Amino acid sequence: MAATLKKLHSDFSVDCVVFGFDEGELKILLIDRNEAPFKEWKAIPGNLVAKSEDIDHAASRVLYELTGLKDVYQEQLYTFGKVNRHPQGRVITVAYYSIIRRTEDGLHPMSSFAREAYWWPANDLPKLAFDHNEIAEKALQRLREKILVEPIGFELLPKEFTLTQLQHVYEAITGEDVDKRNFRKRILGSDLLKQLNKKQAGVAHRAAYLYTFNEKKYKKLKNQGMIFGI
Amino acid sequence: MAATLKKLHSDFSVDCVVFGFDEGELKILLIDRNEAPFKEWKAIPGNLVAKSEDIDHAASRVLYELTGLKDVYQEQLYTFGKVNRHPQGRVITVAYYSIIRRTEDGLHPMSSFAREAYWWPANDLPKLAFDHNEIAEKALQRLREKILVEPIGFELLPKEFTLTQLQHVYEAITGEDVDKRNFRKRILGSDLLKQLNKKQAGVAHRAAYLYTFNEKKYKKLKNQGMIFGI
DNA sequence: GCAAAAGTGTTAACTTTACACCCATGT
DNA sequence: ACATGGGTGTAAAGTTAACACTTTTGC
After folding, report:
1. Domain count, chain B
2. Which of A63, B60, B102, B197 sits between 20 and 30 A of A165, alpha carbons compared?
């Protein structure tokens, strides 16, 4: 098999781990590869970096082609550089991760390579192409560290959310259950949430108030050295 | 000037930020470049990665050539991939950092490119070649985050050290003064230090006990999920 | 009226901080 | 004898953790 594959030269790619939250679960966006190598395997979306393209730019390009989203905050995760990680040549890959908000109307892929993209439960990934299981594992680790110290929970939810939904995000990512009263005290105590004059509709129980996250205030406080800390 | 430089093709390098502690100060190892581009500028030591070399391996090779040290723990820091960061071609660089223990007999460089390596105060770096100031800044940031959560202070000191020396390391890295009694309570409370039956010699004041860090015990506890936290 | 999730305070345990004096050694 | 850093404990303040019942809504 390897003999029929064309050789690349030394090159670099980006891979984008995209986190989402749905059905009470943390998810990762995967694609079905339709080219060798690893044809028909599932994989983390990625692409080679063009010669005249910043790697950060390549990462946002891949994300845009996959989801139609622009201006998403992406953070560099780690660079994977084992000699034999790519069967066709020396390709090191710079992995990024991002967190995207679930919207009502779903994703709008801009490119054919994304035709078979879908959400997969982050804690139960299948066997992936290349060293992508390692990449996903590292991204999960990083997300779990990060949520303790930055308010990323909000970015996985719609703009308006209930406190219970937010609590579920935290529980899904950390894997630990949290006391409802203590959670609310802390999260409201940070003074970064605004209670709306609106409640959930159409639920078969007492309707919860909706809240929004005050991103501007957070950024201001963060620049003053405040640390979030849940 | 640019016209006289030979063109590289797309490639990758590693750069190694090496931290040390001396004269009560955090230091970084710098070299004087003796080749274009940036000839005679100071720089963070680095090298191209060979085609058949893992990037982690390249990082330890550079460190070995520079210092003669093997088996030093190095951690990947960040990958810098702006298109124009290298004037001779597209070279992305994977930065690593490491922490080395001050020894009595100094460094033993293994390669000529290191002839002019020396320690420079980390908080007062000169203007460096390429984007190396950015790299150093990121490494410092990372070290400051890391010391709050892993016992790296010990790795900057000789195997046997006094509690005051250790406190100075923490203060130099975090930039904040610490209460002596509280510092000692915490650090001894972690139960990772062993007091030796030895004291400092030749100091013009009451001699302090020497301690060693119990690395094995730390690794065991860490694997059980313990977090250090100073 | 019942099932399901929303909302709400208090107390005890623990952690963190602030703080000052005597001791040992070399000159 | 003096200058220098070494070594030591306590109490107040603040933070975290544990815990259970009433309310609202849709069916």
Report:
1. 2
2. A63
